[in-house]
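User: Quick sanity check before I run a bigger batch. Here is a single chain. Can you write out its predicted 3D structure?
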Amino acid sequence: VLFLHGSGERGRDGVKQTHAGLGPYLREHATDFPALAVFPQVPGDEEWSDHNNRVAVAALDATIAEFGADPARQYLTGMSMGGYG
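Assistant: Done. Predicted structure follows.
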């Protein structure tokens, strides 16, 4: 699962984007969610543009390769700014 955050979660801390949308659900239901989730973060005042979209997909591809996930079962979700990324 690739989760694209909204504008309020931009930054460089690598954490803020996990506190909105899918992140809190996963914390509460981790054992009930048999999937890998990738939470890339857009820096500063940037948006989900061509460059940041490529970075996000590259992170998903690297996760699939590292953990042996099924590449035929990829899911994209997001909220607010991430909903149109």
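Residues 2-84 form one domain.

User: Great, the batch can go ahead then.
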